[in-house]
Amino acid sequence: MNIDPNKPTQTHPQLLLTKIEWDTFRAYSGTSPLYATRMLVQTDGESEGQYFKWGRGDFGPYSSLRNVTKMIEEATRINDNSYIALAKFFRAYYFYNLTLTFGDIPYNQALKGEDQAGYTPPVYDNQKTVFQGILKELDEANNMLKGLNVIIAGDIIYKGDAAKWRRLVNSFRLKVLMTLSKKESDNDLKVKETFAQIVQSEPILGNTEADGDGQLIFLDQEGNRYPEFNSSGFGSGMFMASTFIEHLQNRKDPRLFLYCTQTKIGKEAGKPINDFTSYEGGDPAAPYAETSIKAAAGKVSKVNDRFPSNPTNEPLVLMGYSEQEFIIAEGIVRNWITGDANQHYKNGVKASFKFYQTYVKGYEAYLTEEKANEYLALPVNNFALSTTTAQKMEQIITQKYLRTFFQSGWSAFYDNLRTGYPDFRRPAGVTIPYRWIYPQSEYDNNRENVSKAIETQFGAGNDKINQQVWWVK
Predict the structure, then answer these.
(1) CA torsion sign, 274 to 277 to 283 to 289?
(2) Distance of alpha carbon 130 from alpha carbon 134, whole angstroms
(3) Max Cα separation, the chain?
(4) Would you tell me which CATH number, out of the four given (3.90.550.60, 1.25.40.390, 3.30.450.20, 2.40.160.20), belongs to the domain 11-26+59-205+433-473?
(5) How far separated are the first and last CA of the chain, in Å rounded?
(6) What gap in Å lies between CA 105 and CA 182, rounded to an integer?
(7) Contact call for residues 41 and 241 (beta carbons, < 8 A)
């Protein structure tokens, strides 16, 4: 009979958008991917990511998607397509990561709990259907944002600029399509054709602030600080992996200086920060005790102190111009589109240098455009010297990888599954997993449907991390 003002049943979607953006842009950040991508090693225990021994994944993103569903409901109530368009993007982003994590997942029947009289456990959609849905929602988001001349209130990413959001949506579409590179001959997906149409006809990210990265900028105030600020995880047990440092050393890459510290021995010897010989990592394939001994001797670099000590650091980039340019370069090498792959490769490298020059204080002198040009002129970094498709692919994917330190979540791991680059060093006999095991909660609450999904994909009872999923076959 009465309405409780403390329990609102409806609200403006802008009040949901801010929280959704904050959660989404931080959703896959953190140190976990860096162990699997051979950037970090642990010395005080065995890291499951470092040794590819993980087990169950998490359906937590479905909880975040419930807020997205509510934003769609509220936007529909007030007839505001701008929020519906952004919701389609967030849905696509979460479902993209969920399906890459597990394989088949609930998609078409997911998030329907409040729409039906009685709860019905959702069936699983096959991965191809999920990807088709993701691409359809992104296409719809692009069309809804087209010509939209409104300020989207509550937007902390682009300050309400619908045109910038449209660029981000289309660039993310390119990423999803490139993820499906092994399915380029599938007539249902039209991967190559859609990729070409977007590059040629749709607005995508540029290298200026006016048309730039989709990124979350942090502030030095409670609740808005960099997610690794004051993290205890950077204690005595976390060190850099040798293979990552060697990739940077071999290329004379100055990003090394802002990613990690000099070794204790290197620093005590008085070597300058830009002395590449003063950096060293632990072997990610060796037993953790072996690296612990090496670290105790002062011969292993730690993560740069700025990550846990700086409340702002650089923004977290969900999708940026640098990554986009590497994707387009790969598209050219794959003959999906015509163009100058070398130029897009250079654009990607220069954009990464510029990003760190802009946001990481104290290292600007190493990251100027002049330094970037000198870097690209080195034979090991000179794309023009690559003559075979394999050489070109390795160079593009490796450079794409080098920019993912605390950025882009698991993207570098999925690129490795897709292309084999860069090679991830691991103990003898250990294979790189393709997926995570479904959560125990699915066995408890949705056993029939999860069991059917496992049987369809891998055979009954084969819910294992080494089972190959559709998108990499």
Answers:
(1) negative
(2) 6
(3) 77
(4) 1.25.40.390
(5) 58
(6) 20
(7) yes
Domains of the chain, by residue range, sit at: 11-26+59-205+433-473, 232-309
- Full-model pTM: 0.97
Average pLDDT of span 312-317: 98
Distance of alpha carbon 40 from alpha carbon 238, whole angstroms: 7
Average pLDDT for 377-399: 98
Q: How far, in Å, CA of 202 to CA of 183, rounded?
A: 23
Q: Is 267 exposed, middle or buried (0-12, 13-18, 19+ CB in 10 A)?
A: middle
Q: Do strands 316-319 and 214-216 pair parallel, antiparallel, or not at all (unpaired)?
A: antiparallel
- pLDDT score recorded for residue 275: 98
Tokens found for residue 459: 């055979």
What sign does the dihedral 54-59-60-65 (CA atoms) show? positive
Pairing of strands 214-216, 238-240: unpaired
Q: At what angle do helices 242-250 and 389-402 cross, to 10 degrees?
A: 110
Contact 86, 17 (CB under 8 A): yes
What pLDDT was estimated at residue 190?
98
What are the b/e assignments for 273-310, b being 16+ CB within 10 Å?
Answer: beebebbbbbbbbbebeebbebbeeebbbbbbebbbeb
